[in-house]
C-alpha cells in the first residue's frame, strides 16, 4: 500500500517531466510560440520548483511526512472543483493544512490551466504552479521511503519508484506523440483521485514520530511497517538513541548546516544535485523531440525506442542497486551519460559529411538511448544518498538547500539548451560529456558507499569524517 501511494504520486511527476518533449511542436504551432517563449514555458517549471524547494524541508519537518502527503493528494481532488467552483477553496482551507492546500491546489490546477490555455502566459502560469507542488513532493518521497523501509531493501524500494517515473515518462512520450497536447494535460490530472483514496491509509514516518516525542505512535507504526510478528526492539532502540542524541545537540537550521561536522554531507548533497542537472539531464528529458528532429529521426520511432529501452534498464537497476551498491552503480551510470553525450555530439559533427549522412540519425538515436538509459540506471541514486547522509535534526534544512540547488541548475539548463543547440549542436553535447566525466571524479573522491548500512550508521560515518 505504501509503495502504491508513492508510485502513484511519482507517476504524476513523471507526466510533468515528460510532457514538454512530445508536445513542443504542437504547442508552438497552435499558439504561435517562438523558440524563446517555449523555452520559458519549459524552464519556468523550475522557477516554481525553487519556491517549493525553499520550504520543502521545513514543511515536512514541521507537519510530518504523512500530513504533507495527504494535503498534496487531497488538493488533486479539490482543485478539479476549485477550477470551476472557486468557492470550494474556502472549504478546503479548513479541511487540510492551510498553507499546504494553497501550494497543492497549484499542483493540479496547473494541468487544467495548461489544458485550456489560450496564450503563452497561461501556459507559463500552469507550468509554474506544477513546479511548486512537484518540488515539495520530490523532496518528500525519498525522505519518506528512506525512513520507512528496512535498510536491506531501501535501495530496491527506491528503484521500484524509479521504475514508475521512467514508465510514466516513457508513456508520456508515446501517448504524447499520438494525442494532442491539451488532452495530454488533462490526462496528467487524472491520478489525483486514486491517490486521495489510498493516501488516508498510509502511516506516518516512525522516525519523525520519534523525533517529536510521540513514542507510543512511533513503536506502533514501526511494528505495523515491519509486520505483527517482527521483533522491532533493536531497531526501535537504535532509532530512539540516535534521535535523542541529535535532539540533545539541537534541531539545527540552514545556517547551522555550514558547520565543519556537516561539511562532507553538504558538499556531497549539493555536488550530486549540480552534476545530476548540468550533465544535460533537462536537455535530454525536456527537449527530446527537438533532438530527434534536428538529428533527422522520426519522433514516433525515437520516442517508442527510447521508452522501451529506459524501462528495460530500470528493471535491471531494481536488481542491482542493493547488490552492487549505490556508489558503483552511479559511477557506471554517469560513465554512460558521458558516452551517450559523446555519441550524440559526434552524430551532429558527422551530419554534414556526405559519407556519414545516412548513419548519423542512427548514431544520434543510439546516443540518446545510451544517455537516457544511463539516466534510468542511476537517476534515483543521488536522491537515495541525500536521504541517507544527513541526520534527522538537519535533514529538513539540508533537503531544502539540495532541492534549491537542483531547481536552479534545472532552470539554467532547461532555458539555455535551445540557444546552445542553435550555437553549436556538437559543442553542446561534448560539453555535457566533459561535465559528466568530472561527475565521475567527484563520486570517486568524495561519495561513500551507503549500501547495507542503517541511517544511524551512515550519519555516524559522515560526522566522524570531519571531526
UniProtKB/TrEMBL annotation:
Entry coiled-coil feature ranges: 215-242
Keywords assigned by UniProt, alphabetized: Cell membrane, Coiled coil, Membrane, Sugar transport, Transmembrane, Transmembrane helix, Transport
Q: Which SUPFAM superfamilies match?
A: MFS general substrate transporter
InterPro entries, sorted: MFS_dom (IPR020846), MFS_ERD6/Tret1-like (IPR044775), MFS_sugar_transport-like (IPR005828), MFS_trans_sf (IPR036259), MFS_Trehalose_Transporter (IPR050549)
Q: What is its main location?
A: membrane
Q: Where on the tree of life does the source sit, at the highest rank?
A: Eukaryota
Record Gene3D superfamilies: MFS general substrate transporter like domains (1.20.1250.20)
Note the topology in the membrane.
Multi-pass membrane protein
- Family named by the database record: Belongs to the major facilitator superfamily. Sugar transporter (TC 2.A.1.1) family.
This protein is called: Major facilitator superfamily (MFS) profile domain-containing protein
Query: What is the protein's species of origin?
Result: Erythroxylum novogranatense
Amino acid at each position: 500500500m505504501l509503495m502504491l501511494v508513492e508510485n502513484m504520486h511519482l507517476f504524476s511527476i513523471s507526466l510533468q517531466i515528460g510532457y514538454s518533449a512530445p508536445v513542443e511542436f504542437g504547442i508552438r504551432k497552435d499558439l504561435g510560440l517562438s523558440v524563446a517563449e517555449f523555452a520559458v514555458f519549459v524552464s519556468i517549471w523550475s522557477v516554481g520548483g525553487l519556491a517549493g524547494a525553499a520550504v520543502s524541508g521545513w514543511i515536512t519537518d514541521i507537519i510530518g511526512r504523512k500530513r504533507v502527503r495527504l494535503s498534496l493528494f487531497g488538493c488533486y481532488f479539490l482543485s478539479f472543483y476549485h477550477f470551476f467552483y472557486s468557492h470550494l477553496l474556502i472549504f478546503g482551507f479548513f479541511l487540510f493544512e492551510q498553507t499546504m492546500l494553497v501550494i497543492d491546489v497549484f499542483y493540479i490546477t496547473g494541468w487544467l490551466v495548461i489544458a485550456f490555455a489560450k496564450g503563452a502566459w497561461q501556459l507559463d502560469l500552469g507550468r509554474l504552479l506544477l513546479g511548486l507542488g512537484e518540488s515539495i513532493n520530490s523532496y518528500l518521497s525519498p525522505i519518506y521511503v528512506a525512513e520507512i523501509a528496512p535498510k536491506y531493501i531501501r535501495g530496491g524500494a527506491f528503484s521500484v519508484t524509479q521504475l514508475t517515473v521512467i514508465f510514466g515518462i516513457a508513456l508520456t512520450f508515446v501517448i504524447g506523440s499520438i494525442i494532442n497536447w491539451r488532452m495530454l494535460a488533462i490526462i496528467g490530472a487524472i491520478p489525483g483521485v486514486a491517490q486521495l483514496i489510498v493516501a488516508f491509509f498510509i502511516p506516518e514516518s516512525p522516525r519523525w514520530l520519534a523525533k517529536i516525542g510521540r513514542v507510543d505512535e512511533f513503536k506502533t507504526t514501526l511494528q505495523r511497517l515491519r509486520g505483527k510478528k517482527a521483533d522491532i526492539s533493536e531497531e526501535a532502540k537504535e532509532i530512539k538513541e540516535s534521535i535523542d542524541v541529535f535532539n540533545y545537540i539541537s534541531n539545527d537550521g540552514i545556517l547551522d548546516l555550514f558547520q565543519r561536522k556537516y561539511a562532507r554531507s553538504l558538499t556531497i548533497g549539493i555536488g550530486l544535485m549540480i552534476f545530476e542537472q548540468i550533465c544535460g539531464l533537462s536537455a535530454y528529458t525536456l527537449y527530446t523531440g527537438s533532438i530527434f528532429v534536428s538529428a533527422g529521426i522520426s519522433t514516433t520511432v525515437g520516442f517508442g525506442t527510447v521508452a522501451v529501452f529506459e524501462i528495460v534498464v530500470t528493471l535491471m537497476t531494481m536488481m542491482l542497486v542493493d547488490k552492487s551498491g549505490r556508489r558503483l552503480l552511479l559511477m557506471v551510470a554517469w560513465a554512460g551519460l558521458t558516452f551517450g553525450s559523446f555519441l550524440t555530439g559526434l552524430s551532429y559533427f558527422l551530419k554534414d559529411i556526405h559519407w556519414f549522412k545516412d548513419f548519423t540519425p542512427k548514431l544520434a538515436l543510439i546516443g540518446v538511448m545510451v544517455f537516457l538509459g544511463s539516466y534510468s540506471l542511476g537517476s534515483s541514486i543521488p536522491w537515495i544518498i541525500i536521504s541517507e547522509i544527513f541526520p534527522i535534526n538537519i535533514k529538513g534544512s539540508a533537503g531544502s538547500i539540495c532541492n534549491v540547488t537542483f531547481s536552479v541548475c534545472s532552470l539554467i539548463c532547461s532555458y539555455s539548451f535551445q540557444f546552445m543547440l542553435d550555437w553549436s549542436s556538437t559543442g553542446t553535447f561534448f560539453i555535457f560529456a566533459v561535465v559528466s566525466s568530472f561527475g565521475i571524479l567527484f563520486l570517486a573522491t568524495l561519495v561513500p558507499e551507503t549500501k547495507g548500512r542503517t541511517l544511524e550508521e551512515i550519519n555516524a560515518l559522515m560526522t566522524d569524517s570531519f571531526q
